[in-house]
Specification:
The structure holds two protein chains of two kinds.
Chain A lengths: L6 H14 L17 H9 L4 H11 L4 H11 L1 H17 L1 H7 L16 H4 L2 H7 L10
Helix pairs in contact in A: 1-3, 1-4, 1-5, 2-5, 3-5, 4-5
Chain B lengths: L10 E6 L3 H12 L4 E5 L16 H5 L7 H4 L8 E5 L30 H5 L9 H15 L24 H14 L4 E2 L33 H4 L1 H6 L3 E4 L2 E7 L5 E7 L5 E11 L2 H11 L25 E7 L15 E3 L15 E6 L16 H4 L2 H10 L3 E8 L8 E9 L5 E7 L3 H20 L4 E5 L36 E3 L14 H17 L9
Parallel strand pairs in B: 1-2, 1-8, 2-5, 3-14, 8-16
Antiparallel strand pairs in B: 4-10, 6-7, 7-8, 9-12, 9-15, 10-11, 11-12, 13-14
Helix pairs in contact in B: 1-13, 5-13, 6-12
The chains are: A mainly alpha, B alpha/beta.
């Protein structure tokens, strides 16, 4: 069974996604970074648990003004709006363009030199803690 | 009827559960030449299954690798009824158990934790002291490959961890600056995450995804730290084996366990000694399931305390937001720094005991959106989404507060009357409420954490008074002690009622401390299994 959405549902998704994630504050809107393309199919394939609420929301919103439809869903079916919003925002924040704009390289590999002297040792910050002395209660006799 | 092969081998020792304590027991028993079989209901996890090194990480963290079994909803998990609990229990069922998903904060208890009755007049003292356990803490530091810095003034002088500390990053430095302004304790946090390659594991690359499994095979989960050696030395590990009952003979001695395999077949594994290592929820569940004519109230339950005194460490937090970028997604996660400034009891505060604090990274931009569910559309979405991300993401850290909850018999694990796992075995139900002492403790610590956050230079902050998904630490439900009327097992984990039945997991804790417990669970398991090995010729077994 195909897990892909038809074009009408995809258009409804993009319209609501642009309400939730508009062009503002120097950031692009959701549709400008491709959240309705292959990434959408991949999200739904990876998270089949979202599919029922996601589709329910899109079907309820079909043919309605997207802003009003989003408000109605948020009030009457928050699980559906939540599923649509999660899929939209997950795709959005996976976009290389968006990550660059918010200064996020992703959960990158950045190993540190284990033999380097920590800054808090070199600058004396930790010594202040040591100088304040022990803070534990010993085992009572 | 269980499928019992005639002439099937009787193991010297059967371990139920391949998590932290079961792994430690299996390795040391096998190395001592003892024939050990371990039954684990979950599978073996491969590091390539984790998503931390892939862009979809945050999406998958919210379901497949969520620490709440009720959210994951996998066949190898059992559902838990939490309708009467303030806190959700968190765990993972697989080889390595919850160390697959834990943050690897490798803590020791402080000396006072073992003498709460003597010092504070509440709960009970443990049957041993910090000094008794210290050699086993030292040994576990080496077995796990702990990274940290010796000399923490919150502890008695002792051996330093075997590996140098991991970087504390900009968030740790920012938090430490605030603590020094106030003159409060902080220390780089010890983590069971190697800062350089160690015993077959890779150096931590600071990806910061420890809580959803380490894709880089760095974090010390016991599937890597203990099972390879256990298997080399002849231990038998059976995965997909869900135990429904520990069996006993007419003399009241344990004879093994009946389990259900992934083909739905009942099987029996016999053994001379049985060690239960199923965590503070799974262990009392199994003991309660193991009813018989001789043990009508469940196995090892003459005290009536199996399942009682559940402790789960209520968790509160203060998140600070800063003007400057702090790279607050950068690992380890893992802890950067910790504080025990307010750990010990001070009678002037209006409560007893205290809490450990720690700073951890805050993850990626999607996870930070989780708190917006159910809010008005214009607050959670639209231009506000961009403003909130810009304000918070990468510019925040959290002081997390692990509150010590004291044992209370009304906080308990019972068998649920309706809910079952995928094999039809009754699920556990948790009944758990925060005490007034805990509430006062959390209120005090939140106020101090706010002061620490402001001292660090935060321009704004938010407060989480109690995180519902915080029950990582499952303790107290088969407590140890000297008196069989007031405890379930002795100081070696041996059931008072069944001399060849042992419990090694966090169920045996007398009090909870305010620390992440896995280091202590493993140290106690090591102490107990060393004693079992040394005393094996005196061990009573079923004929």
């Amino acid at each position: 069974m195909s897990t892909k959405l038809d074009d009408a549902l995809r258009r409804t998704f993009l319209a609501i996604a642009d309400v939730l994630i508009p062009e503002a504050e120097g950031m692009p809107m959701a549709s400008q970074v491709g959240v309705g393309g292959e990434i959408l199919d991949r999200m739904l394939a990876l998270r089949p648990d979202l599919r029922e609420a996601f589709l329910r929301g899109l079907r309820a919103a079909a043919g309605k003004p997207p802003a009003a439809a989003a408000e109605t869903l948020n009030r009457d079916d928050p699980a559906a709006l939540g599923a649509i919003g999660l899929v939209a925002s997950a795709g959005y924040y996976m976009s290389a363009q968006v990550r660059e704009l918010i200064g996020y390289p992703g959960q990158e590999s950045r190993p540190a030199d284990p033999d380097a002297t920590p800054e808090y040792v070199a600058n004396g910050m930790l010594q202040q803690v040591i100088d304040r002395g022990p803070i534990f209660k010993p085992t009572p006799k | 009827m269980a499928n019992i092969k005639k002439g099937a081998k009787v193991a010297d020792v059967l371990i139920i559960g391949a998590g932290a304590s079961g792994s430690v027991a299996a390795k040391h028993l096998a190395e001592a030449g003892i024939d050990v079989v371990c039954l684990e209901q979950g599978p073996k996890v491969d590091n390539s299954e984790f998503w931390g090194d892939k862009p979809e990480w945050e999406l998958m963290a919210q379901k497949r690798w969520h620490p709440n079994p009720n959210v994951r909803d996998l066949e190898n998990d059992y559902p838990v009824d939490t309708s009467e609990s303030d806190v959700n229990p968190l765990m993972y069922n697989a080889v390595g158990g919850s160390t697959i998903l834990y943050a690897a904060h490798w803590q020791r208890f402080m000396p006072s934790d073992f003498r709460v009755k003597t010092l504070d007049g509440v709960a009970d003292d443990w049957p041993f002291t910090y000094e008794d356990l210290e050699p086993f803490y030292d040994a576990m530091d080496i077995e796990m490959g702990v990274s940290g810095l010796g000399g923490d003034p919150a502890y008695p002088p002792g051996k330093a961890p075997p590996l140098p500390p991991l970087p504390i990053g900009k968030i740790g430095m920012k938090a430490a600056e605030g603590m020094n302004k106030l003159g409060w304790h902080w220390w780089p946090g010890p983590n069971a995450i190697p800062s350089r390659p160690y015993d077959g594991r890779n150096q931590c690359v600071r990806r910061g995804t420890c809580l959803t499994g380490c894709a880089d095979r760095a974090k010390a989960s016991t599937d890597h730290t203990h099972w390879p050696a256990a298997l080399v030395h002849g231990a038998t590990l059976i995965t997909g084996a869900r135990v429904r009952e520990i069996t006993v003979n007419a003399e009241g001695l344990a004879t093994g366990a009946i389990y259900i395999d992934r083909n739905g077949r009942e099987r029996e594994q016999r053994a001379e000694v049985v060690i239960v290592c199923c965590n503070g929820v799974g262990t009392p569940r199994l003991l309660q399931l193991s009813k018989s004519a001789r043990f009508p109230d469940g196995l090892a339950n003459s005290s009536g305390l199996v399942g009682k005194n559940l402790m789960m460490h209520p968790y509160a937090a203060v998140s600070g937001y800063f003007d400057e970028p702090l790279e607050s997604w950068l690992g380890p996660a893992g802890q950067t720094i910790q504080s025990m400034q307010f750990y010990e009891t001070d009678a002037t505060r209006g409560f007893v005991r205290g809490a450990k604090w720690q700073v951890m990274p805050s993850g990626g931009p999607l996870g930070m959106r989780a708190a917006y569910g159910g809010k008005p559309l214009e607050e959670a979405w639209g231009a506000n989404l961009h403003r909130n991300t810009r304000k918070v993401f990468g510019r925040a850290f959290e002081w997390g507060i692990i509150a010590e909850d004291l044992p209370d018999e009304t906080n308990q694990v019972v068998l649920d009357a309706k809910l079952c796992d995928s094999d039809g075995i009754p699920s556990p139900k948790l009944i758990y409420k925060n005490s007034d002492n805990t509430k006062r403790l959390i209120d005090f610590h939140l106020e101090r954490a706010k002061e620490a956050t402001l001292a660090a230079g935060a321009v704004d902050m938010s407060v989480t008074p109690l995180m519902r998904d915080c029950g990582w630490h499952l303790m107290g439900t088969a407590r140890m002690g000297v008196d069989p009327e007031r405890s379930v097992v002795d100081q070696w984990g041996r059931a008072h009622d069944v001399p060849n039945l042992y419990v090694y997991d966090g169920s045996v804790f007398v009090t909870s401390s305010g620390f992440n417990p896995t280091g202590t669970i493993c140290a106690i398991a090591l102490r107990s299994v060393k004693h079992l090995i040394a005393q094996r010729r005196n061990q009573k077994v079923a004929a």
